[in-house]
Amino acid sequence: MKVNFNIDCTPEEARTFFGLPDVTQLQAEMMDQIRGRMMAGMEAMDPQTMMKTWVPMDAQNWESMMKNFWGQAMNGWGNMPGMPGASGPKKG
Fold it and tell me: How many domains does the chain have?
């Protein structure tokens, strides 16, 4: 034997029928909080703010870093065998 019941009701009516709590106000408050957090996060996506966060250097620090980088690179290249002015072991 097969029995089918078709019930036509809204979600609110079904919740009330089964005795479930109405959480629409709580859901609205949570969505407002989530929306606020997302909007605050979007302010941090401004390109200028992102660059300040990612690259906290000013021009003087940047120049100093580049001098150190190129100084280390030139010292390393100067010690490679076969390079002009190299002080490393020579090919025989």
Answer: 1
Between the alpha carbon of residue 12 and those of residues 20, 30, 53, the distances in Å are 9, 19, 47
Full DSSP string of 2-28: ---------HHHHHHHHT----HHHHH
Looking at the domain assignment, is residue 67 inside a domain? no
Both tokens of residue 37?
């957090």
Domain that holds residue 37: 8-54
Amino acid identity for residue 32 in this structure: D
Task: Look at residue 45 and give its three-state secondary structure.
Answer: coil
Asked if the structure places residue 1 within a domain, the reply is no
Residue-wise pLDDT for 23-75, tens only, equals 889 999 999 999 998 888 777 677 777 777 777 666 677 788 888 888 888 87
Residue 85 belongs to some domain of the structure:
no
